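hey m, so remember when u said the tokens were messed up on ur end? i reran from scratch. heres the input so u can diff it against urs
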Amino acid sequence: MAAAEVINMRTEPEVKEQLRVAAELSKVSLSKFVLDAASARADEVLADLRSTALPEEFFDEFFAAINEPAPEALAALTERQRPYRRR
């Protein structure tokens, strides 16, 4: 599948040269080098948001808390009519 989207960016000449040299040494195009690096960083950021690490001493307390019934005020919020529709 051919790429269909374009990303434009501005940079300092020194940074562009650094990336160009690194791409050349990696035997890939500058675009591929930058896109691969940005994609890898995006994966890291998204993985951090998808997981939560807890110290062992807090895990049992946290697990117990999320398995308790919701407080009455919270339950009322989750049962109320939404002002919007999901698609």
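this time it looks ok to me. The CA atoms of residues 39 and 49 lie 15 Å apart. if urs says something different then somethings off w ur setup not the seq
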